[in-house]
Amino acid sequence: MSDECHVCLLGLIFLSSLLTGISGVKVTNVFIxxxxxxxxxxxxALHDLKSTTWFYNRFxxxxxxxLIYLGIKKKDTESHERLSLGSDCSLNIRNISKEDYGSYTxxxxxxxxxxxxxxxxxxxxxxxxxxxxxxxxxxxxVTLFCQLYxxxxxxxxxxxxxxxxxxxxxxxxxxxxxxxxxxYQILSSSDHCIITLNxxxxxxxxxxxxxxxxxxxxxVKSSVTYTVKSSGEKQAHQSVxxxxxxxxxx
Length: 250
Ligand SMILES: *[C@@H]1O[C@H](CO)[C@@H](O)[C@H](O)[C@H]1NC(C)=O
Ligand SMILES: *[C@@H]1O[C@H](CO)[C@@H](O)[C@H](O)[C@H]1NC(C)=O
Known about the structure:
The protein is mainly β and 250 residues long. It has two helices and 18 strands. It folds into two domains: 25-126, Immunoglobulins (Immunoglobulin-like, Sandwich), CATH 2.60.40; 132-233, Immunoglobulins (Immunoglobulin-like), CATH 2.60.40.10. Strands 1, 3, 4, 5, 8, 9, 10, 12, 14 and 15 form a ten-stranded mixed β-sheet that branches. Pfam families: V-set. Residues 20-107, 118-225 form the Ig-like domain.
């Protein structure tokens, strides 16, 4: 293949990755873990806050909720205390919660009612990890659940397939934990949107890290780390059994 064709092939790949939304609408996929802050770009030329409206749909068929209307933040939305409008018309969301997943749209108007350019569509995907318990002792089993909350036109399953999204648990060295590793039971839900890690804690697990990663087209997009901590002072009668706390870090 000539160099020129490599360039046009790359161009096509780039273009197709932009055009993955419904009916060829340009969509940006953003992956983030709960607790983090995110900035969603309005992506257009008009840097005029007073012409900018952001709205949100959690599901395809749910009614759109206006978050920002012509530069002014609506006060009646669940997330309003965590939202702000950036000087470039981007939408900033602090301390992401798993309920923030969905589709965000930026629309700009000129002269009051004329739409300026195409809308910017952002699909926000949120990685969230929880555990069956926060305190545990050596010899007891623990289950960590890692779930991707995604805007889905169809099902979570179809989105994961069409966007080539995958969830993994990896160890401290970044090596993927698999079913064949006898220490761990790794289970994927039938729709592939939850991956669970079940293991029995050992005395030597203090400070051990397990990380859940979400990848799209084999690139890591976001991750959450669980660290096992010894819970400090132990009573004499507990000396045989180490007690642990599980800490989530982004
Ligand atoms: C972030 O939100 C969680 C609830 O989702 C809350 O418990 C926590 O205190 C918040 N953190 C900050 C820094 O506001
Ligand atoms: C985790 O694995 C242990 C040992 O196989 C099992 O007893 C326990 O029920 C499992 N826990 C969950 C929540 O699947």
